[in-house]
Design a protein that fits this description.
Belongs to the YqgF HJR family. This protein is α/β, with parallel strands linked by helices and 137 residues long. It has a single domain, classed as 2-Layer Sandwich (Nucleotidyltransferase, domain 5), CATH 3.30.420. The chain is built from five helices and five strands. β2 and β3 form a beta hairpin.
């Protein structure tokens, strides 16, 4: 089986996570600058077999678009243009960053490790989005 890759897109940083080849466990992969994410994905797809991509899609509590939705939609359009044959799934990302922060605290991460500038929270958020996708599908 091939992996599934998840993307937590942000204007500055993009968190990435992948499943194991059996698609059982979601693990944080990397955090890359948003301007570098397409190049990173080209390289990753050439190196690893990826069956599908899941992108965290931001909505508010009522399920409506947020300020971030427009930027994510622009990235989705670019992704579809660059990778037209890659299956793409949207996953609600509501509260994924808060859940990532909480899980990092529970795992014993110190404040420096959790710091958003380090990008750890972005890739953990992507792993949470991917795990939710796996559980729902």
């Amino acid at each position: 089986m091939a992996r599934i890759l998840a993307i937590d897109y942000g204007n500055k940083r993009v968190g990435l996570a992948v499943t194991d080849p059996l698609q059982i466990i979601a693990s944080p992969l990397e955090t890359v600058h948003s301007k570098d994410v397409i190049d990173f994905l080209f390289n990753y797809f050439n190196k690893e077999e990826v069956e599908a991509v899941v992108i965290g899609y931001p909505t508010n509590e009522e399920g409506e678009a947020t300020d971030a939705t427009q930027q994510v939609q622009a990235f989705i359009n670019l992704f579809k243009k660059k990778f037209p044959n890659m299956p793409l799934n949207l996953q609600d990302e509501s509260f994924s960053s808060q859940m990532a922060m909480q899980s990092m605290i529970m795992a014993g991460s110190n404040r420096k490790q959790r710091n958003k500038k380090s990008g750890n929270i972005d890739k953990v958020s992507a792993a949470i989005i991917l795990q939710q996708y796996l559980e729902e599908n």
